[in-house]
Structures are given as C-alpha cells and as structure tokens.
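[09:14] KT: can someone run the structure on this one? pasting the chain below
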Amino acid sequence: MKIINYPSADAEACIAAIISRGLIYEKDDIDAVNHILADVKERGDDAVIEYTNRFDAPEMKIADMAVTPEEMASAEKSVDDAFVSALSRAAGQIESFHRRQLENSWFDAPRQGVILGQMVNPLSAAGIYVPGARGGTTPLVSSVLMGGIPAKIAGVKRVVMVTPPTADGSVNPHLLAAANRIGIDQVYKAGSAWAIAALTHGTKTIAPVDVIVGPGNVYVTLAKKMVSGLVGIDGVAGPSEILVIADSHADPDYIAADLLSQAEHDRLASAVLVTTSNDVARAVSDALQGQLPRLSRGEVAAASLERFGAILLVPDMEAAMEIANRIAPEHLELQVRDPFDWIGSVKNAGAVFMGAYTPEPIGDYIAGPNHVLPTAGTARFSSALSVGCFMKRTSLVYYTAGAFSDEAEDAMRLAEIEGLGAHAESMRIRMKKRQG
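[09:31] RB: done, structure tokens below
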C-alpha cells in the first residue's frame, strides 16, 4: 500500500473515502427484497420453500424446514473431538464475558412519597441468522455462538436459528453441534431475505420473533433494515474494517497479517495502518506484498487494499488517536509498547485489541466479547451486540397523594405550555378532589 504523510490533502482524501464507503443498495436489490418480504408475509411457508428450492436446495420440502432431533443427534456424532474441545472453550469464554452484562431490576426512593424504578425483562423470542458461507462448506460456527449465547443469558424463552440449507437440504453438522451446545431451541433451514421475512411475520412452520440478529449478504442486510420497527435488529452491518495503530516497537509481519485478516472479507473491506514510524510503515508495505500471494482469498484482499487500504505516517500518537476516532473503526488494534496508556484516548471503536499478541481474529472466535460490532463509522453512536439487545427496560413510577400534590402544579404548568389540556386536566381533577 502507498504510504501517505499526515496531515496532508492526500491523507484527508484517503480518510474521507474510508469514512464514506459502505454498502451500496441498488434499486433492483431494494425492489427484490421488498417483493420477497411481501410475498412471505402473504404466502408464508409456500413462499419460503419456493425461494429455498430456487436458490439453495432444489428438492427440499416444507416438512424438512425444521431440523429434527435425529439430525441434531447425527451432527453431534459426526464432529471430531478437537472441534468439540475448541467449541466448548469458545462457548465457555463467551458465556463468561456476557454474564457480566446482565442487568437487574431496581427501585429507588429519590423524594418523599415517590418510588421510581426500572423493571428489566427478557424478550420472548429471538432469531439468530447464520450465513450459508459458500454453500455450507465453511460453517460460521462463531456466528451461532455470538448471536445465541447473549440471547440465552438474557433469558429469552425461545431462541431460534435460521441458516440456508446446503444443496442436498442439510445443515453443516458443525453449525448444529454449536446450536446444540448453547441451547438453541430450534433450527430452521431458510436463508436470505425470506428467512428474515419468516422471522418477522411468522409462517405455519416458523413462529415470529421479537428481535433478529446476525450477519448476512446484501439481501439479509436490506431485509433487516426494512423490517426494523416491526422487530428489533442488532444493526445494519456494513463491510468489515480494521485500523492498526503502531509505534516503532511493533512487528511489521504481525501488522500485515492482521490487516489482511480483514481485507480478505470482501472488496469493500477497509484495512488501515496508522504509525509514527517510517521504518514500520515501509516494512509493513513489504510484508503485505510477501503475504498476499499465500492467501486463498488474495485477489479479494488485494482489491480491498487497493481501494480502501492505507498506511498513514503520523507525527505522534495524539495524531494517530485523532484519526482513529474520526474513522471510528469496527476493530482497533493498539500495537504499541504501552497500549493501556492510550485506552483513555479511544472514543470511537467497536472493539479494541491491545498488544502484539492480541490479533483481531482471536476476538472473532474465542476471547469472549461479541464480534458483532458497529461498522462504517457507526461506532460513533452504537455498540457491540450484547445481552442488553435481548432485554427490555420498563420504567416504574409510584406517587403518594402528598408527593403528587407537591409536584402537580409544576407538571400542569408544563402541560399547558405544550398545549396539552387533557394532560393538565388529568392532574387538576385529582388536585380538586384532594382540596375539596
């Protein structure tokens, strides 16, 4: 990648291009997804199976959409011990982290005669979307864990998973083993926008849910965006991104590998190095050239680096942090000698990975925090998927007659200023009866 000095006009143009990139929704895609959502809402299972037959599993029937206990048992037997061990470790560590996010209901008595509080309850049903991933040949086990575990910890009574079937109408056994490990209640063989529609509106086979989470292609993303408001969603995901801040102590080979780990996702992914060291900048550029040819997705990674990759050479760490906060990356790595010294300067990032031995991919799979993160600059105002995404908070208010009398006049005054006479009268009628 080209090394660009910061501050400069070239650097500003580069940063602007990265910040402004994102998923581009073509009119044809929008129209197609709108049609699918309406079709499934109207025809239910018949529409879901037609799309499934056309795009995924030609011979599958409606009766086959729900994964059976026999299929789950068969999947458990077909995965090897090494996978089960890795799965157990990842699930256990993700569970441990997310349990810290649980909220409790509470009461407070801030004024004489007034009791206020918040009641926290789990949602009733959640849908976890797991992409098909090359026809099921590269099962995204981590998506099962990251979506399902916080939902189960929140106490959601019905947690279901949808995923596109393979051509023969099956689901990769690694996905089913993961779903079974974390207690997913039901798995359905349905993908893309028709799965999102089914989870939103419900069909005879797939009951509706309250929230839908999980990554997917442009059809999945568009569908989630369109049904948001009818159901909750985790967010509208854009292309993946990483920003690495490095000083002269950083290892160029580590940095290059970490940049490529995100660049290989797709051609819109962004991988940026911001460094105070000219030597590190040049060494990383060389290391990228050496590592790219060894990647199975090297062509995709190269295209990503060409369009949205950059090495920015900055005068000091303060400038590096300023750039990071402007871009608000999904993944921020601090490959510096004393990463904890700079945590207080991080304002906008989905997740922060500190030190030479904390590459972003370890967070994708096993560290514990959720890997469903805000992208495309949305870390400025949103957060990672969490237990809180599967819970709702209800305010509680109680006044004694005396406390009401102390505050009603001021409340009525505010209501009248807003022109809401009935609001004021609701309080005035109580005051009259108490006085009279």
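[09:33] KT: thanks! The mean pLDDT is 96.
[09:34] RB: yep, looked fine to me
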